[in-house]
Amino acid sequence: MEIKKAVIPVAGWGTRSLPATKNVPKEMLPIFRKPIVQYIVEEGIGAGISDVVFVTNQNKTIIEDHFDRNFLLEQLLERAGKTGMLDEVRRVADMVNVIAVRQKEQLGLGHAVLTAREVCKNEPFAVMLGDDLMFGRNTGIGELIKAAQITGKAVVGVIEVPEEKVSKYGVIKGEKIEGGMYRVTKLVEKPPVAEAPSNLAIIGRYVLLPEIFEILEKQKAGVGGEIQLTDALQGLADQDKLVAVKLAGQRFDAGDWVEYLTANIYFALHDEELRDELVKRLQELLSCSG
Questions:
Q1: How far apart are the first and last CA of the chain?
Q2: Closest by CA position to 208, among listed 129, 282, 277, 101
Q3: Which of 23, 55, 154, 204 sits at 20 to 30 Å (Cα–Cα) from 10?
Q4: Quick count: other Cβ atoms within 10 Å of Cβ 123?
């Protein structure tokens, strides 16, 4: 099973991050020295993805532009002798083949995936959501692609969450197969704590089979009046065509302000030039706030 396409839905309004996202797509908010969406694309590239399908809207063309050439900027950097920066902006422009499709109405994640049907056609494909950032060696979408190649099934990424937070996620019920892999029997979107089948929460990483489109096409609106991908995945689970992988590594929810700011600190602490001064300033701030 070869997986070369990743669908990245970016048509949402980013209301959790307002007012910062009033005129700037949440996917373009910076974490350390890169916009959020670049980390997602680089994760995909590291797993062998060559084509990125942005499910977008008319206000998000800046995302596509980020992965295109900017000749005026390149000329400016070249004249200034800033060859390192010049190489970096060219690297970003050349890193992946970008395909954009319009989601004309925001009717849910399931609808966003369905919008990419004509591009993905009869191939298995990855889905990567920009709210979830995964960091660490051999983690993220690469783990799911490996599981899909081993099992021949669709795969969802899951993490363990505290019981009181299960109502914020889609949650699975599954039978452990081996290692961190589960055969999924049931999925519930944002269940009340008392009704959650487990604390294994689905995060924004999927590898899907093309038959998901037939299921989504017939899918009725679910939680929030939207076409939920979680509901459609139940159709695959009913056919024993869905497994879950408990993801390793460090995960940040970029739509949560505490997580977003922590992600910035995480990367800055890994920068040798900034680490010592940053630690010093954080200690000063903590002592002042105390």
A1: 55
A2: 129
A3: 154
A4: 15
218 within 8 A of 193, measured Cβ to Cβ: no
112 vs 100: CA distance, rounded Å:
12
**Cα–Cα distance measured from residue 148 to residue 241, given in angstroms and rounded to the nearest whole number:** 10
- Amino acid identity, position 43: E
pLDDT in tens, 137-171: 667 899 999 999 999 999 999 998 888 888 888 89
Nearest-Å Rg of the Cα atoms of the chain is 20
pLDDT of 290 reads: 59
CB 205 within 8 A of CB 128: yes
- The residue to which tokens 């609106």 are assigned: 221
Measure the CA–CA gap between 30 and 271, rounded to whole angstroms: 16
Residue 31 lies in a domain: yes
Enclosing domain of residue 226? 5-255
Question: Does a structural domain hold residue 273?
Answer: no
- Residue 17 in any domain: the answer is yes
CB atoms within 10 A of CB 237: 22
Whole-angstrom Cα distance, residue 134 to residue 123? 25
Q: In 3-state terms, what secondary structure has residue 135?
A: strand
The three-state (H, E, C) secondary structure of 156-194, written as one string: EEEEECCHHHHHHCEEEEEEEEECCEEEEEEEEECCCHH
Amino acid at 177: I
Tokens of 120: 């993905």
pTM greater than the 0.70 cutoff: yes
Q: How many domains does the chain have?
A: 1
* C-alpha to C-alpha distance for 30 and 69, rounded to whole angstroms: 19
CATH number, residue 129: 3.90.550.10
**274 in a domain, yes or no?**
no
